[in-house]
Amino acid sequence: MFDVTSIRKRFPHARKKIYLNAASNGPLPGPAYALQDEYYQKALLANVGGQTEVFAALENIRRNGAKIFGCTTAEAGFGFNTTFGINLAAFGLPLKSGDEVLLCDVEFPANVYPWLELRRRGIRVKFMKSVDGCFSLDHFEKSITRKTRVLALSFVQYFNGFKLDVETIAEICRRRNILLVLDAIQGAGCEPMNVRKWNVAIASAGAQKWLLSSQGTGIFYVSEEIQNRLRPPWRSWLGIDWKCQWHNLRRFDLAYYPDSRQYELGTYPGPLVMSLDWSLDFITGLGVRNIQRHNHALLDVLIAYLRQEPFYRITSSLEKKHRSSILSFTSDHAEVARIHQFLAQNNIVTSQREGAIRVSVHLYNHQADVDHLITVLDKAVRKLSRG
């Protein structure tokens, strides 16, 4: 059972503020923080040892990462952020001069700048036009040429929560022999994923948002088929299984792991790994589909209010297949910055993105949070109306 009251007990912030900003940074759960603190306390006394507990946690992170992505454990790995996996794709996929990469013109910079660097290698990077801030299938198909090799997109858009119909996009990619790369940070942990079914080549997600971990942690996916074609842009000594036997390291003929572990970089951030391990256990235990239902139900209440209040205008898609745990709205009657400030003055944390207020709810939010948000938005109508 999805017991929000019980869940909230693990989040100290829930007693002090209404936090509707998971798309920026997710609050750290108390037990995850305690594991970090325990690790640092050991480090203070030089008791970190051979870190066997860290490597055990990494194995569990890969198993849970596979559940979140919808792939095999052999295809999942630990990364430091979303950019880790995007760089692995940009500089590891077998692209050559003259090839084309397609991006949408509303992508988050993390999924843009690594690709732009490929221009130095003679690879063309093309931006497809969005429609009302949303990815357009029509524009995608019209942008494809015989040179198109990669399509790189955000699974969920950061500013309006537009969620891709990945299955349809992937089918087009399959027919045209295009590799699909996903920036998954705004969906992993709150929206169900099935990257194997979708035939995604590479996906990556930082864990500091919906995965309830610290900055400097993340998960990535490389399909088994792509692992056989990838040319890793880096190599690490911890891409090899040393079995924590640190007394014998002068072995230079060892093979790399035969799976996604070979792309990981060491040395690992021990306390953050322990924390991420707890958070992924927590999320997969609740079930991502259950989390999605909870989040969408909360946003349904906000949507109903915004639809009947002419002071506000929803800027997110309300089409079921494109909805996510993010909802954005603006106003034609008041400055967005003033609305955002008014919410903050009333202890409600949201974000201001691309001319709109972004609300992003997660598993620790409950009905009272949304009810209070609506009450304050109602007050804002009277206080901020241009007259």
Describe the secondary structure blueprint for this structure:
Elements: H1 4-8, E1 18-19, H2 30-44, H3 52-69, E2 76-79, H4 82-92, E3 100-104, H5 113-116, E4 124-128, H6 137-143, E5 148-154, H7 166-176, E6 179-183, H8 195-198, E7 202-206, E8 218-222, H9 224-227, H10 270-286, H11 288-308, E9 313-314, E10 326-330, H12 336-345, E11 348-349, E12 351-353, E13 356-360, H13 367-384
Parallel strand pairs: 1-11, 3-4, 3-5, 5-6, 6-7
Antiparallel strand pairs: 2-8, 7-8, 9-10, 10-13, 12-13
Radius of gyration: 22 Å
Mean pLDDT: 96
Helix content: 25-40%
Order of helices and strands: HEHHEHEHEHEHEHEEHHHEEHEEEH
**Order of neighbouring strands in the sheet with most strands:** 2-8-7-6-5-3-4
Strand share of the residues?
Answer: 5-15%
Tell me the distance between the termini: 49 Å
* CATH top level assignment of the largest domain: Alpha Beta
User: What fold name goes in the CATH topology slot of the largest domain?
Assistant: Aspartate Aminotransferase, domain 2
Annotation, overall tally of beta strands: 13
CATH architecture of the largest domain: 3-Layer(aba) Sandwich
Largest sheet: 7 strands, mixed
**What form results from the Cα inertia axes?**
globular
Indicate the structural class: alpha/beta
Low-confidence stretches: none
CATH homologous superfamily heading of the largest domain: Type I PLP-dependent aspartate aminotransferase-like (Major domain)
Number of domains: 2
